[in-house]
Amino acid sequence: MITSSSPKAPLSLRPGSELCSDRVALVVEDHDDTRLMMVWLLESWGYYVLEAENGQEAVQIARWARPEVILMDTGLPGIDGITATMRIREHLHESVRIIFISGYCESAFRARAITAGCDHYLTKPLDIAALAALLKNDASIKIEHGIRL
To answer: Burial level of 11, CB count in 10 A (0-12/13-18/19+)?
Structure first.
């Protein structure tokens, strides 16, 4: 499944602060409910969001769409998140930020993801404020009504 959503207006997290606008993101997640929540979240922050259910789709979409950021699950059918990240890095190098969002919290798995080329590693349940800070590159950002996935 390769789908895309329509652009949304940026969401102000605090009065006068925009997270982003006119940006493209790719969400790679095989669980529909989790993927849809991440899509909704990114759209509410002004991203145009593409979706992939597996690693092979992620590699294909990343090559032609060249998203600014990829939210990558680890346990995907077929090509896993580690392998997909390595293949994406072969073509896009440093031009895309890849953020792993994983249920694996072991340091060895985190090290494998970093070695494969991910820029950041977040664990589930997802800390929305931490994701927002990474996307904005501002560790001091606050979300008043935080949502956890």
So the answer is: middle
Q: Cα separation of 142 and 100, whole Å? A: 21
Answer CATH for 2-9+19-136 from 1.10.287.1080, 3.30.70.1150, 3.40.50.2300, 3.20.20.150: 3.40.50.2300
Q: How far is CA 128 from the centre of its chain?
A: 12
Nearest Cα residue to 102 out of 110, 112, 94: 110
Interacting residues of 111 by C-beta distance below 8 A, sequence separation 6+: none
pLDDT-based confidence at 123, cuts 50/70/90? very high
Q: Are strands 23-28 and 47-52 parallel, antiparallel or unpaired?
A: parallel
